[in-house]
Amino acid sequence: MVIGWGKCASMLGWRTYNYNLAESMTPFAKLTTWSHDIPYLARHNFVGISLESFPTWDLSAPTIYLSLRLAYSPFADAAAILDDFYRGFYGPAAGPMRAYWDAVDNGWQSLPTESGAIYSVHLVVKKPHVTMQPPGTTITLYGFLNVKVTAIIILKTN
């Protein structure tokens, strides 16, 4: 569809969501998605993107930062943008926080569909073993949260 529309018009816009429609109050990341999709859209004559977002920096900070930076410079180096974000936003805790957000991103990327609309329900219902939270994700994220809290305590005591 994107390629076809790109051949028909010289300037297109894309409207999308920057959060999970089905559950907007859990950690959410689209780092892999935006690193691929925004440059892809730009290569096919999409000159604007409307990213409906919530100001939930605690739940999706790197996703918000990356998507906005790429919206203005779609061919920028996404990895460098994220390096800048983690270093500037988390300081000495950048390493553990990057690992945490990468785990969140990997969890969402591993799902067979993005939840939030009736159009994808059949993909989950046909596969009863599929859950909207991949096995091990909760345990993995709890481990990262413990690392994050430890890093913050160390920073405040030194």
Key phrases:
158 residues; 8% strand; mainly alpha
Written account of the structure:
With 158 residues, the protein is mainly alpha-helical. The protein has one domain. The chain is 58% helix and 8% strand. The chain has 7 helices and 2 strands, in the order H-E-H-E-H-H-H-H-H. It has helices at 2-8, 31-43, 57-72, 78-90, 94-109, 121-125, 137-157, and strands at 12-17, 46-52. Strand 1, helix 2 and strand 2 (46-52) form a beta-alpha-beta unit. Helix 4 (78-90) packs across helix 5 (94-109). The protein is globular. Mean pLDDT is 79; it is low at 124-132.
At a glance:
The chain has 158 residues and is mainly α. The protein has helices at 2-8, 31-43, 57-72, 78-90, 94-109, 121-125, 137-157, and strands at residues 12-17, 46-52.
Q: What share of residues is helical?
A: 55-70%
Radius of gyration of CA atoms, rounded to a whole number = 17 Å
Structural class: mainly alpha
Average pLDDT level: 79
CA distance, first residue to last residue: 55 Å
- The side-by-side strand order for the widest beta sheet comes to 1-2
The largest sheet, given as strand count, sense and whether it forms a barrel, is: 2 strands, parallel
Question: How many domains make up the 3D coordinates?
Answer: 1
Count of strand segments: 2
Order of helices and strands: HEHEHHHHH
Strand content: 5-15%
Enumerate how many helices there are, as a single number: 7
Low-confidence stretches: 124-132
Shape by Cα distribution: globular
